[in-house]
Amino acid sequence: MPTNLASGAEYDTVGQKRWVWPGFALPGVVWLCLLFIVPFYAIFAVAMGRIDPILSRPVPEWNPVYWDPTVFARVFGDLFGGQLSGIAMRTIGYVFVASALCVIIGYPVAYFVSRKAGRYRWLWLLLILAPFWINYLMRMMSWVNLLSPDGQVNQALGSFGMASFPDWLAGHHFVVILGLVYGYIPFFILPLFAALDRIDDATLEASRDLGANNLQTFWRVTWPLSRNGVLGGLVIIMLPMFGDYYTPNLLSGSPRTRMLGNTIDQFINQTTSQGAIGAALTIVLMAFVAGLMIYYLVTINRATEEARS
Amino acid sequence: MAYHPRENWNPSRRRRIYTRRDFLQRAAVLGIAIPAFPSILAACADRGAGEGAALAIGTPSSPVQQPLFDDNQAIESGLEPETGPLRIYNWADYLSPDIIPVASEALGVEIEITTFFNEEEAISRLSSGEVSYDLWFPTSQRVAVAVAGQLIQPINHDYIPNLSTNVWPQLADPYYDQGSRYTVPYVTYSTGIAWRNDMADSGDIEGQENPWDVFWNPKYSGQLGLYDSFTDTIALALLRNGVTDPSQATEAELDAAGDALVELIDLVGVRYTIDGAYVGIPEGRFALHHAWSGDLVNSQYYWPEDGDYTVTRYLWPASAEGSTSAAPISSDTMAIPINAERPVLAHQFMNFLLDETNSLDNFGWVGYQPPQNSLTPDYLIENEWVADFLRPALVTPEDFERDNAWVQGPLDAETEALWSDQWTRATSGA
After folding, report:
1. Which of A37, A54, A63 would you mutate first to test chain B, the one with the most B CBs within 10 A?
2. Taking CB atoms and an 8 Å cutoff, what residues of chain A touch B428?
3. Any chain B CB within 8 A of the CB of A166?
4. Are the CB atoms for B362 and B372 separated by under 8 Å?
5. Partners of residue A151 in chain B, C-beta under 8 Å
6. In which element (H, E) is residue B114 found?
7. Which residues 210-229 of B are in CB contact (within 8 Å) with A?
8. B88 φ/ψ angles, rounded to the nearest 5 degrees
9. What average pLDDT does this structure show over A214-235?
10. What pLDDT digit, counting tens, does each position of B132-144 carry?
11. Domain ranges of chain B
12. Domain pair B19-42+55-188+331-389 / B189-328+404-428, same fold
């Protein structure tokens, strides 16, 4: 990156005081501190705090000097080879399968809307997003009604002459995964739509002029140019999926389909004294998810550098 | 709008009520509420080991008196009521919306209700001291903790004449708080088995020596559910294994209970829900479900238009014929937080809810039964508040004294860790 501070330390290239532009970031920084760093610190304080002797509840320990990290040893033991390893693997599996389905389903949709829908594209976009003006929880509850044994899905199957009906809500992996896909896919489509929309038609025409067929054009021009949109969409949907617990709760309830979010919820909301374990699990999950986020940022950064050079 | 049982009694008028209330109940259960962050911050307590104060935990066979403290006195008699609003801190949907305007008029003040979605949240906020409510609804098993932690203040019986005249003697002077020093009873319930006799064979439950064992019957694979509540469900497994006092379960017994629950995953494809008893059974998602008696009384309002409510059945193993199993019974209470700003109004509201008519109206919406002398099972059934086939879901004062009735106490942190471990095993589905 060129460092062109010709007029000295006080002013930047366009002659503004150096603090002006960073100053615009201030509200965001304050916001981040209040709503992320402080709560995050509180989670640490609970994880490594004590238990109130009378009320049996966790008491956060605000002074790091007194932090007791033994809970992390326990949580790592549980997650790697212990009683939570199955649930951790399942959570990762669900999120990856659901994300892959989002790509398979969402990419063609985003592609169609951004490049083929012509002047009706905004209408298409609106139609895709309209159901998502309704709260996630409400939509999942409607699925419970649709999929229950005497629900509308089975009634429809019955009208096609099917005699015996599957019990959709009896604890199937695919129902939970489809619930996740349904719940999060618009948040994948939207950033991807924006990325595809930005691709200059001239680059595609150039590709064809140079003799590439449609498939080659897609593979060598469109896909590379939209890859960061896919990655961005994936990050947006994968992060909340890892913490999701109401989808498996509502659409299954079976121990076979529990996710890590359910376990955290259990330690924090069901027990009195075990909140520290829930807090530690939250931190470990956040660290894992942060790993994905860092991968994304590194990739984006590299792409930006390449584009510049 | 409320659902008076009689409004819905006529099957032709019954309709599916799938409303805000249902949404709220599910949402509450899912913990959608955001825990109050300031309460975490405010909970900075003194560091240091600190000895746990001895909790006075009573059972029907060994009742206890809660200790009084010099710096925590009941209000004087004969005080004028404060000006409103009366602030009530309660579970979601645990007071009839119809009764609030009536109470408001009777007391001459506005009433504000704030809800919590679990008792941990409530205790956490009350102990932070940063909130002030005038009336709170703790479960009876938490009364000892609330007294020792000085969360609630003693009550003055002069303001609550209905306590001695209307309430079952067993709960007007209850085992968990002899002399009702800190609490008055609100509602009572048992925990048992709910089923549909069109989907499950009643003979598999009724007349059985160990009715709990029906949840391990592969015949009902994919059709049965237990509560997603670890204290209830670990207790169920212990009771099924023949333990009569789950509070005293040994580690080996807890291990066996955990094993039994793990076995359910493949044996019957068990599902854990919180609405299975009152919504899942009417919807046909479950043939049988672990059930609090009050949920079952409520379930009548959740049947679809063309459903037949009369197939619902409930059994409480501690009173069932032929059964030797123990089963849980409990009650909830009303108490006044130590920093209440309007304690006189709170006393008056307690007395209001202990009135026969008011408690009956409230029951009609809440579904959980008030321990009122006049509201006997016979009365409730004759007057069509509860259907005859749900008689076992009604609690009587004598039920608390049955040999096999088990009342749950609070778990100390060590014991809770053991229970919670078994629950993690049972629900991980590994």
Report:
1. A54
2. 83-84, 86-87, 255, 258, 263
3. no
4. no
5. 283
6. strand B111-116
7. 222, 225, 228-229
8. -110, 140
9. 90
10. 999 999 999 999 9
11. 19-42+55-188+331-389, 189-328+404-428
12. yes
DSSP B187: E
Tokens 């950064």 appear where?
Answer: A301
- Supply the CATH classification number for the domain B19-42+55-188+331-389: 3.40.190.10
* Residue among B220, B273, B428 at smallest CA distance from A256: B428
Closest CA to A275 of A45, A35, A7: A45
What tens digit of pLDDT does each residue of B239-296 get? 999 999 999 999 999 999 999 999 999 999 999 998 899 999 998 889 999 999 999 9
Threshold 0.90, pTM exceeds = no
By residue count, chain B amounts to 430
Residues of B in contact with A170 (CB under 8 A): 222, 269, 271
**In chain A, what residues touch B40 (CB-CB under 8 Å)?**
42, 46, 60
Torsion of CA B371, B372, B374, B375, to 10 degrees: -50
Domains, in order of start, for chain A: 82-279 (1.10.3720.10)
Q: What is the ipTM of this complex?
A: 0.84
CATH superfamily of B189-328+404-428: Periplasmic binding protein-like II (3.40.190.10)
Using CA coordinates, name the residue in chain A closest to B128.
Answer: A59
